[in-house]
Write a structure and sequence with these properties.
Blueprint: E1 2-6, H1 11-22, E2 26-31, E3 42-45, H2 51-61, E4 67-70, H3 76-84, E5 92-96, H4 124-138, E6 143-149, E7 152-153, H5 171-176, E8 181-184, E9 190-191, E10 194-195, H6 196-206, E11 215-219, E12 225-226, H7 227-238, E13 244-247, H8 252-255, H9 271-275, H10 285-299
Parallel strand pairs: 1-2, 1-4, 2-3, 4-5, 5-6, 6-11, 7-10, 8-13
Antiparallel strand pairs: 9-12
Helix pairs in contact: 1-6, 3-4, 7-10
């Protein structure tokens, strides 16, 4: 296939490009041209905030793509760019959204895609939901598929999945120094991380699946754990017991509303994904964290 990836230098988009190339797909990336790209891609350069530049870059490629994988869209404006500009070159879209679209006060355990209680607070999750709605309401005959991952882990990403320590660059040094990990509610909330390869391979696999057209999918790897257990696994891998300092729930969310999507259970029913015939995530949490830690230590 001929694939266009919006992105290509970020942790997820780069891995999508690498795996697409390994599968034998001819792959184009669209980035601002600031960071290195995987060897073998056709590099297109434009700032997504500039519709005219995007239009010119795509026109210059003089290609019709089998699919566009949008890893960088975050707003309704970026979605309209897909619908109005990118669609001149392809009618198949795979879009990365987020589990943060859900209103945490109405979540179920596990959560499935039938829940239509969404955040409307103007934050990251609410804006991503507005992006989704453009495809749903304005996509016309486009064949789109939306994925809602939660915490993405694996090589290319920083560690940390919870308030106070989210994507913390020095988390390993913090734990090795015996400093406590501060967890709201003691880290009792559930999390359903997805390994970067599992997400990327599912997105690529969905391209030709008719059952995925016009559908939204939650996605997570096999293990559902508490946030406390996530950090404990990291400690076991590096041979340092993690010390936990419990932060009380009372008043925390009111003082830190930006964490609303994290101060709740984040685990998902993957039945719809399985029934669509899409490649199911298979990487155990500890396996993926070992890989991630090895990558991080290799960057030091």
């Amino acid at each position: 296939m001929k694939l266009l990836i919006l992105g290509g230098s970020g942790a997820l988009s780069r891995r999508v490009a690498e795996l697409a190339l390994l599968q034998g797909h001819e792959t184009w990336t669209l980035t601002r041209g600031v960071h290195p790209l995987p060897e073998g891609v056709h590099a297109l350069t434009a700032d997504r905030n500039d519709d005219a530049a995007v239009q010119a870059a795509l026109a210059g490629a003089d290609t019709c793509w089998d699919a566009c994988i949008d890893c960088t869209g975050r707003t309704p404006e970026s979605a309209r760019q897909d619908v109005q500009i990118v669609s001149r070159h392809t009618s198949r879209f795979i879009i990365v959204s987020t589990d943060s679209v859900y209103d945490p006060h109405h979540k179920t355990v596990p959560q499935d895609e039938s829940n239509e209680h969404y955040l409307t607070d103007g934050g990251y999750g609410a804006t991503k939901r507005l992006m989704e709605e453009v495809f749903i309401n304005e996509g016309g005959t486009l064949r789109w598929t939306i994925f809602r991952p939660g915490h993405i882990f694996g090589a290319g990403f920083q560690l940390g999945c919870y308030p106070e320590h989210t994507r913390q660059p020095d988390l390993l040094a913090h734990i090795r120094a015996g400093k406590p990990v501060r967890l709201v509610g003691g880290g009792a909330f559930l999390i359903h991380p997805v390994h970067v390869d599992d997400l990327a391979l599912a997105m690529l696999d969905a391209i030709g699946k008719e059952a995925a057209f016009g559908q939204v999918f939650c996605i997570g790897s096999p293990d559902v754990v508490t946030n406390a257990e996530y950090y404990a696994v990291i400690g076991r891998i590096i041979g340092h017991e993690v010390q936990v300092e419990t932060i009380g729930l009372d008043g925390y969310l009111e003082a830190h509303p930006q964490y609303s999507g994290h101060l709740c259970h984040r685990c998902y029913d993957l039945t719809k994904l399985r029934r669509a015939g899409i490649r199911m995530p298979a990487t155990p949490l500890e396996t993926g964290l070992r890989e991630q830690i090895a990558w991080l230590e290799g960057q030091a």
